[in-house]
From TrEMBL:
This is Cytochrome c-type protein NapC. It comes from Thauera phenolivorans. It comes from the Bacteria. The keyword Membrane applies. The chain crosses the membrane at residues 12-34. Keywords: Membrane, Transmembrane, Transmembrane helix.
């Protein structure tokens, strides 16, 4: 049970970092396109 919980926490943490990176990249692209127009 401890191993399963540890794996789940790692998965959630990885998903959270992935979401942050995606939001950051989307924000950069959005602001870049907005400033270029």
């Amino acid at each position: 049970m401890t191993e399963n919980k540890k794996g789940l926490l790692q998965r959630i943490r990885a998903a959270g970092w992935g979401a942050i990176v995606l939001l950051f990249a989307a924000g950069v692209v959005f602001w870049g396109g907005f400033n270029w127009t």
